[in-house]
Design a protein that fits this description.
This protein has about 130 residues and is mainly alpha-helical. It has 5 helices and no strands.
Length: about 130
């Protein structure tokens, strides 16, 4: 993979994350995904399915043999969001609380690191970086 290819792969994952977390996630998903019960899990899984679909699309363009990164992303993203959402819900944090923003930031960074791991896997699959 060339450095330019790596740059575009990074941009593809950033765009995927922006679209799935901010453009495609509705108020129900965002507000309910940390709550207990069926509705909380439905909201969470609806949201994380959009992420898995986005990851699948990026991977099918970049490295189709690594299709399994999409279901892995579904599991990882679900786990990260469930922990953050349940913590926020049980503690009663809202956008008015500092700890809400800390948990939001940690959540976003965990997703960024996950995407970095996917990029590394794709680069290794492609044979590394070729200058």
């Amino acid at each position: 993979m060339t450095p330019l290819g790596l740059f575009f792969l990074y941009l593809a994952f950033r765009l995927k994350h922006f679209c799935c977390d901010f453009l495609l996630q509705n108020g129900w998903m965002a507000g309910m995904k940390g709550r207990p019960g069926r509705e909380g899990w439905s909201a969470l899984l609806s949201h994380t399915l959009t992420h898995a679909t986005g990851t699948f699309l990026v991977v099918m363009v970049a490295a189709p043999a690594l299709w399994w990164l999409a279901p892995l992303d579904f599991l990882i993203h679900s786990t990260i969001d469930r922990i953050k959402g349940a913590l926020t819900w049980t503690k009663g944090w809202s956008h008015k609380n500092t700890l809400f923003w800390w948990s939001f930031g940690l959540d976003q960074e965990a997703h960024n690191l996950t995407h970095l791991a996917y990029i590394v896997a794709i680069v290794f699959h492609a044979g590394g970086i070729i200058a």
